[in-house]
Task: inverse folding
């Protein structure tokens, strides 16, 4: 496997406070990488820095191109779909319009319609809610919509910020099953930030532990499971 | 009864112009969250451009179309040059710049075309229509406004560009995350507002005569319409503009004290009353925040 995304010396700051202090990590082509860490470790900021939503410095190479100076729109147009914390739903627009917006940078009406049907295949409940205002959906349905909207880009890389946050276990399982299916059946890579470490490690092939804006451990999921200290801290047993 | 009907219809005709101005104001409010005080003077300037083209011998509708196109481009240009650098500036900076623009456009109109009152042609004529209820120009004002609204509605609901514009206005950060170029959508909003204002100016000019302060009162009615309908709702703005037009006319006719002297006071009182009792307007959404 080769790296689809490789990040070197990434720093990011909000105003005065520096949140990332020089991160190095990679996401493999077709692979799933997970970022773990306590609240405030800089996980969300890392995803936002990749997309140019915060001021960032360092080198970010995506698919062979440096993207650290691109605008958010520019990064997205290269094939990076971000499912942000808070889901980023267009609450006043319908489910259908939200999905159309996911594909707004693409051409080809037929293919887009086809992809919407494919998303309805993954999340049948969205089809029932198709012409409903997205703000009226439940939290779980909105998370499904956020994932579906990201898929509509046909991304090479999907960034997922706490996809399990605030959802019932049944829904979480359903969404992670879809991630597994996507990982097995497409070449799309994923970078997941997740509090639920056990769940995320089942899916991932690489894991990074973040503490106060630094990578303190990098390895495979088994390395964490087999290390007693890390297992206790992150998996809780 | 006949008088009532007549007053309602001619109220709708001027209301159509208020509706256009309200719509232009809402268009910009939705994309940058501020009220454009210069909207009226921009529209007046556009109308002078149309007058100049007609004076040079352009046929009316050619001048009309060219003016709308030039106004659109001018609106985009103002956003790119003046407001883009201000995008994170506080409200007060915006207000100062709006007032500056108002003065600049007002003086520019007066400087280039002087302050004397000019007549502006109507493509519809002034003959009576529907018996004596409306004249041709009033009917034309209503028809033009409705036509423009239908086009805008189709643009926003049926085209991908319209969808991008709505997304950028509703949630700029999420819009960027799906690849919408939000900066250009804001510029496009300015272009549309400016073009709508130009149409309003060209339609009202035959009624109030063309001079640099022509739109001052009209814009106040437009603000009233936008506030009545709700600043977050384009459809509300149109309805609000029509309501204000009809109310103004009926009050002027049936409330003897008001006459034509206090008509503008009604518009301003409406703004204040709505802001006190229903700040989101009749059709606006109350913004609920999750805590």
Result:
């Amino acid at each position: 496997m080769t790296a689809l995304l490789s990040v070197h010396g990434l720093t990011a700051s909000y105003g005065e406070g520096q949140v990332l202090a020089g991160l190095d990590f990679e996401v493999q082509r077709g692979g799933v990488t997970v970022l773990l860490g306590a609240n405030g470790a800089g996980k969300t900021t890392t995803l936002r820095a990749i997309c140019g939503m915060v001021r960032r410095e360092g080198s970010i190479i995506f698919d062979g191109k440096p993207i650290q100076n691109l605008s958010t729109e520019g990064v997205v147009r290269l094939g990076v779909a971000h499912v942000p914390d808070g889901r980023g739903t267009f609450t006043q627009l319908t489910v259908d319009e939200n999905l159309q917006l996911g594909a707004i940078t693409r051409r080809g009406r037929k293919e887009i319609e086809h992809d919407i049907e494919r998303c309805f295949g993954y999340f049948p409940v969205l089809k029932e809610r198709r012409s409903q205002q997205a703000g009226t959906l439940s939290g779980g349905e909105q998370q499904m919509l956020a994932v579906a909207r990201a898929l509509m880009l046909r991304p090479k890389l999907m960034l997922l910020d706490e996809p399990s946050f605030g959802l019932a276990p049944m829904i979480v399982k359903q969404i992670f099953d879809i991630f597994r299916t996507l990982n097995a059946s497409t070449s799309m890579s994923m970078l997941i930030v997740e509090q639920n470490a056990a769940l995320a490690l089942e899916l991932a092939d690489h894991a990074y532990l973040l503490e106060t804006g630094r990578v303190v451990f990098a390895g495979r999921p088994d390395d964490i499971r087999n290390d007693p200290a890390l297992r206790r801290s992150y998996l809780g047993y | 009864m006949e008088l009532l009907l007549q007053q309602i219809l001619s109220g709708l005709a001027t209301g159509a112009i208020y509706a256009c101005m309200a719509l232009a104001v809402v268009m910009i409010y939705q994309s940058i969250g501020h009220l454009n005080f210069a909207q009226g003077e921009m529209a007046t300037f556009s109308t002078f451009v149309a007058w100049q083209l007609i004076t040079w011998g352009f046929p009316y509708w050619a001048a009309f179309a060219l003016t709308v196109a030039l106004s659109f481009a001018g609106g985009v240009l103002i956003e790119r040059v003046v407001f883009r650098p201000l995008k994170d500036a506080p409200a007060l900076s915006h207000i100062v710049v709006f007032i500056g623009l108002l003065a600049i456009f007002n003086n520019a109109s007066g400087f280039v075309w002087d302050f004397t009152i000019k007549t502006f042609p109507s493509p519809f004529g002034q003959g009576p229509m529907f018996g004596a209820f409306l004249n041709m120009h009033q009917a034309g004002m209503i028809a033009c406004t409705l036509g423009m609204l239908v086009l805008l509605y189709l643009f926003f609901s049926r085209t991908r560009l319209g969808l991008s514009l709505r997304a950028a206005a509703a949630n700029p950060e999420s819009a960027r995350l799906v690849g919408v170029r939000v900066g250009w959508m804001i510029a496009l909003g300015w272009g549309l507002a400016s073009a709508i204002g130009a149409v309003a100016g060209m339609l009202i000019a035959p009624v109030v005569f063309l001079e640099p302060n022509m739109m001052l009162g009209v814009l106040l009615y437009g603000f009233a319409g936008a506030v009545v309908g709700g600043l977050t709702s384009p459809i509300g703005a149109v309805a609000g503009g029509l309501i204000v037009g009809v109310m103004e006319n009926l009050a002027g006719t049936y409330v003897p004290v008001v006459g034509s002297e206090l008509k503008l006071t009604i518009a301003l009182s409406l703004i204040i009353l709505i802001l006190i009792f229903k700040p989101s307007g009749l059709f606006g959404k109350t913004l609920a925040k999750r805590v």
In short: The first strand of chain B starts at residue 128 and ends at 129. Chain B touches chain A at residues 160, 163-164, 166-167, 170-171, 173-182, 285 (CB under 8 Å). The CA atoms of residues 60 and 235 of chain B lie 29 Å apart. The mean pLDDT of chain B is 90.
